[in-house]
Fold this sequence. Notes:
alpha/beta; GMP Synthetase, Chain A, domain 3; 8-stranded mixed beta sheet; 29 strands; trans-feruloyl-CoA synthase activity; transmembrane helix; AMP-bd_C_sf; phenylpropanoid metabolism; ligase
Amino acid sequence: MAEQNSNLMIDPRSGFCKSNSTFYSKRQPVALPSNESLDITTFISSHAHHGKTAFIDATTGHRLSFTEIWRAVDSVTSSLSEMGIRKGHVILLLSPNSIFFPIVCHSVMSLGAIITTINPLNTHREISKQIADSKPVLVFTIPQLVPKLGDSNLPIVLIGHELNTLPNSTIKPRIVTTLEAMMNKEPSQSRVKERVSEDDAATLLYSSGTTGVSKGVLSSHSNLIAMVQATLGRFRLDEGEQTFICTIPMFHIYGLAVFATALLASGSTVVVLSKFDMDKMLVAIDKYSATYLPLVPPILVALVNNADHIKKKYNLSSLRSILSGGAPLGKELIEGFLGKYPTVAILQGYAMTESTGIGASTDSLEESRRYGTAGLLSPNMEAKIVDPDSGEALPVNRTGELRLRGPTIMKGYFGNEEATASTLDSNGWLRTGDLCYIDDDGFIFVVDRLKELIKYKGYQVPPAELEALLLTHPEIDDAAVIPFPDKEVGQYPMAYVVRKTGSDLSDSSVMDFIAKQVAPYKKIRRVAFVASIPKNPSGKLLRKDLIKLATSKL
């Protein structure tokens, strides 16, 4: 337990303190630097390590050493400063996974500017909304994605390509330079250096909301530093070189925290796949003798279902740990995996964008075999279980909303004081929107969601966004979207639709209508037509009634 908690009567088994109804982490606390004038890039680059290769491009085999990474960061930082980028400016990074992704992030953050990332699968409409909200002054992107920026007229830096590789477009983009040119430039010794403090904003990642309005989560340099310390301690990465396979999107908090940030401080090697492909992932594990494989549950399911074929074709003997996030794993899946891959341990994690990728975890196979758990609280993290109706803080084995407090909890939502106040209270407690209980041994179990997000392959899909789009269809009177359970992907969006009188609208037409307007992971994949959508007397949608109806025949 942390020193400041030493005078509290904390149950060593559960971590619960009756005097303040707070659960404390049973993990060994991690040390956090006391220097207030410390940015995340300086903190990471100052770590001594024994590794040589930082990143490998799985497709091309291109390698970047740690020395090359920090030299490139210095050069790009200098170039950005000469372009007028200053502390507080927002820079947009629109790119698939790349060995250059961390270089852009750390160059921006070292200036005190703020990096905002976005899913490259998103549509022009979705990207435009984030641009309007975050107001970036510069964009880093690849040539293939330039058309998605539309008529934003933002200055663009192209990543890793020459200017003549741009696709044809009626809109002439404002290309100012390439990342390659910035990396090859000698750093200026006279660039403007503003004081960056650990409380300054570093990242602006967008988290799906139940209202359909995506909110920008501001995380500080101190949030990221605490995340790095917790990650290094969890994986014991100072005990020798390790090789990670990166299929998790770097634009997401999971990928950004682990691959673009924490592992740079560890000396580990990261093999980067630009997007998920099962065959390429397995080839990379075999070729580079990977030891760690972070993934989401649907990939784990595929590894189990195709194990016999996989083991005949690929050598996975180097693999030591699977790191699963997105949803707790059940007994059938865990034991099914261990039966096929007996030398590989399963570790799990629970976190949010708002908690900078840190929350709870299982750090051993023994802990993961507490089937269905999200794990023990991460180091330095505190929790409360609160009755959603009365606001009463509850003891062990009682279900309520999980609230978290600790050094990785966000600063707040960008430009949205109302949303910040409703999610983060004055004492620093974050409302997670997850109904949970904590058992006698301190393990967290997620029972349900207060928030109504659909989890498709680890991606968050807000049903309200899809409902709003459905209601713009000229032949739809009313609509509701629910999560439909699926073993392969977790959940997918299903729509209940009320046709307008006289309409013979088909389910395929409904699905096509939505598919043209949203990223692929948000597509509606099942439609049912009903006479009316169930609502309570005040007009609130009774989504749980529709979920019960949809799953009653499973």
